[in-house]
Fold this protein.
Amino acid sequence: MERGRQIRPMTVDDIPQVGRLFYKIFRKRTISSSNAFNDYFEQLFFGSPIYQQQHGSIVHETPSGQISSVISAVPMQYVVDGEIVTARLLCAFMTDPDMRCHGAAELALILRPRNQDLCFTDSASPASAGAFKAARAALLPVHGLDWCRIFQPAAFFAQLAARRSTLGRYAARLPIARPLDHIVRRLTPALHVEPGTGIHDEAMSTDLFVSAVQDFLSAYPVRPVWSPAELNWILDIARQNTGLGDLNIRSVWNRNAELIGCFIYFGRPGMIAQVLNVFSRKGEEAVVINRMMYHLEQSGLVAARGHVQPGQLDALSRQRAMVYRHRAHTCVSTRHPGVLNAINRNDIYVGGLAGESWSRLVSDFF
């Protein structure tokens, strides 16, 4: 990243320029970013306890000092075949279409596998995925799927309509969803979740979650390290995303008082739960997922959404009232053959807390 090439690491002083570009590209508004946005952006991209400039965000700068393109990235430590590398979780890839020299192609060259220990994204647009593909990165199609389990159909579709139009927001306020769902749920047994025999879930402390999560990931040769300092930082940043509801962590136990799994999600009663991750002991995936669905239904969530982990697809398919859709492209660039082998075997863990869905930049600052 030589200065003569006009490519350099992002600095804190760049945030106002980058914020303006973010709003222009992702919010279709030509405005300056607010102090609240700038403060959050600094926390997210410069605040990690493992942050080092060489693993952070990158900008392309014109000779006049204007930032024309940006790759924003959060450093995240990963285990790759027993060794620890610092990966880049790529978030927003922005380029100003009004600048003649926007630098997007030059930034894309940095993403080539020979230049990266590991960089990945689980939120790439078709255009960004095209840039990754041109750079010979790997695309993970199954990881790009979202699942949705519906508990209260009328309330669920009312919330979808409210997000899309003023008329939908007005209709959603009418008190008709609850009586409709009462009738529909009586007539449709598939909407109900059975609790499972001898299984229970309970609130999980952050300390227990941080100490236990690696046990559930140990079978993956490519997985996040999530040291206590790093994972606590991610959870602290995620808790700021209150627009999606409260951040809830639940543990799942069997009849022998053994911890067999846990799950983490955003949501409150009456909302659509945004499930970040489901972890389970090997062979217990279906039990843990079913208990999660039972908890969400009994807690008054109208539906639940989450991303597909290939190893959990069979367990998810055992649930009724499920819908799948493509959400975004998941892309990985790496020089390590072990990562490519893991991708071919679906033995790489990305998504949720090892992804971008917990960031306020995805769902806030409109």
About this structure: DSSP finds 13 helices and 15 strands in the chain. The first helix runs from residue 15 to 26.
